[in-house]
Amino acid sequence: MILSEHNAIEEVRDLVDEYEQFLSGKARGTMDAYLRTVRHLIAWVAQRPGNEGQFQPPQLTQTAVERYLGHLEQEGFSLNHRTRVKSTISNFAQFLIEEKGLLRRNPTRGIELPPLPLIAPHPLSGEQRSILRSLVEQEGDRRGAALFALGYWAGCRVSEVSWLQMTHTHMDPEEGWL
Fold it and tell me: Does residue 112 form part of some domain?
């Protein structure tokens, strides 16, 4: 390997390390996923014709991102995955713009992916509900029982229950508080 190739590899490694520091406020799992995606993107861009096996931030163009997302689609990756990848690339591009001054424009801007389909929840079968209710009762946990009741008896979705806060539970003075 010649010296300039070695320097280019070191520069990319340093750039990814700095991006990791930029992500330091995020959860470890999120950071790992972002870094894995960025490393894969960098390797893919470096292998494109004319890039001579090296990545430089100006190579991260809208066309390159569109082709990368198309490549992922051809590889069988889901729309949900490609949407997350686009979001990660956008975050990386913002880092390159705001923190490093290596890009002028976010290459993900203007790239449209089909909207994610809204999938209705699948109801549990009678047997599944019975098993779940038995497990909740066996556990003896009041919180678990309350969450189960909200879903089972009130028909609340998990997403609705997960955002529920104590301030949302006041009924009125005659009925009391939950």
Answer: no
